[in-house]
Amino acid sequence: MPALILMALVGLAAQLVDGSLGMAYGVTSSTLLLAIGTNPAAASATVHLAEIGTTLASGVSHWKFGNVDWKVVLKVGVPGAVGAFLGATVLSNLSTEAATPVMSLVLLALGAYLLVRFTLFGLRTDRQHLPLRKRFLTPLGLVAGFVDATGGGGWGPVGTPALLASGRLEPRKVIGSIDTSEFLVALAASLGFLFAIGSQGVNFAWVLALLLGGLVAAPIAAWLVRHIPPRILGSAVGGVIVLTNVRTLIRSDWVGLKNTPTEGLTLAAIAVVWAAAVVWSVRAYRADQAAARAEKVESTGTEATAVAATPA
């Protein structure tokens, strides 16, 4: 029972992050399952089965709050489903010993990207409402779907920053569209795993616990997407993913430094960098907010002066 409660809390927390940031449900959940020794293919299958329900609920919630661009959903979601099915097939044919460090490397890369992307860079807004071309969305969907299935997560970490960086869609619609299209990806990946490995190693009680936690969080996250600064949340989540997967790699046969001083020093150094990144993001966000307020005050003052100077 404690394990099921933990899974439900993980599902709730992961969906709160995913629904408000457009990423990290799969990466966060898969990282936990790998950390407790779950077979990589089974871990990814477990997460994707739960995501069928959570992404459906998240998509409906985002749609109700007006956060979805349906053209983007279809153009990125369909190729994403193809990539996810292929990725599930590839991961299912790797041995457990080979797949664990490989999967951790994928998750580590995604976590590092999140940490750097959201700590050091802001979001472009000067190109919003320009069209997103199919020649951009199709390969993006294929790559993100493949990474998502092989890494146990990655649809959001690949898709959301790419769309945000394009500056052609307002952030809330990027997050809502990526979350909604993820339903197709989760469904295709789940089918790929079930065809390849059946239900071997999949704990359906864990699937249900992750699903229930995600269902509770989905509508809350869709509302929070307008209120939580993505920059701060991205830095926080990226740090967790980097720290956890570095620990997994250090303890793998590839490195073999489990329970050594090197392991402790490495994890401590990463924790310090992570804390500094979050502090940096908070300060950058506050500076951006202060600059926006100053610009608004200046604009209001200029307008008032112009009105006062207008002859009666």
UniProtKB/TrEMBL annotation:
The keyword Cell membrane applies. It comes from the Bacteria. Its main location: membrane. It is a multi-pass membrane protein. Keywords: Cell membrane, Membrane, Transmembrane, Transmembrane helix. It holds the Pfam family TauE. InterPro entries: TM_pro_TauE-like, TSUP/Inactive_protease-like. The chain crosses the membrane at residues 102-123, 204-225, 232-250, 265-285. It is found in: Cell membrane; Membrane. One of its GO terms (cellular component) is plasma membrane. Belongs to the 4-toluene sulfonate uptake permease (TSUP) (TC 2.A.102) family. This is Probable membrane transporter protein. The lineage of its organism: Bacteria, Bacillati, Actinomycetota, Actinomycetes, Micrococcales.
